[in-house]
Design goal:
single chain, 0% strand, globular, mainly alpha, 191 residues
């Protein structure tokens, strides 16, 4: 469960009675897609022939560009979550991250689902004893990707929903010393 029981009006578009602008909704979708893409390699290494999670990420971006309708992005996001169901570990969490990113077009609050599952994927993929460090590094990486226009909104959302998102957003301002395997990652989706 990554969505609150009561919807936060800040994540409901203005036309539906909330306060979220279309521009900020698109930024949330792009950020969620980046979070999911950053760990996508964990899925692809386990399921190289399954296109569903990468398609969900691309559909999130296509929705932002106005190339597809919301229902298309949402549907493909659901297919990515279907790809996760029979998996375990980091690959499962990475597929769920992609599915959540695809669902942001429909419900903006799925943005934290993409981020939370990506952090869980990084934690599970880490060598023994480095899970917490890997999670903090992934969380910090995600925060570094936040566009300024939505930064405070997302950080507040992380604070409010941290307990229902497995406490993965406890990366705060703690400094992670040394270089771990996760800090050395280069391009999105590589481990």
């Amino acid at each position: 469960m990554v969505l609150p029981k009561v919807r936060d009006a800040r994540f409901v578009t203005i036309r539906r009675g909330g306060t979220l602008t279309d521009a900020d909704h698109r930024l949330l979708a792009l950020w969620a897609a980046s979070c999911a893409e950053h760990v996508l390699g964990l899925f692809e290494s386990a399921q190289p022939g399954d296109p569903r999670p990468p398609q969900a990420i691309e559909h999130a971006r296509a929705w932002v560009r106005g190339e597809i309708k919301m229902m298309q992005a949402r549907t493909v996001g659901g297919h990515a979550m279907g790809a996760a169901r029979d998996l375990r570990g980091a690959a499962r969490h990475a597929a769920y991250a992609a599915g959540q990113a695809g669902a942001v077009a429909h419900v903006a609050a799925h943005e934290l689902g993409a981020a939370a599952y990506a952090i869980k994927a990084a934690r599970v993929a880490a060598p023994e004893g480095e899970s917490e460090t890997a999670g903090r590094l992934e969380c910090q990486w995600q925060r570094n990707q936040l566009p300024e226009a939505i930064r405070e909104l997302v950080l507040d959302d992380q604070r409010l929903r941290n307990d229902i998102c497995w406490s993965v957003f406890d990366c705060g301002s703690r400094t992670v010393h040394g270089l771990s395997w996760l800090a050395q990652r280069g391009s999105p989706g590589t481990y």
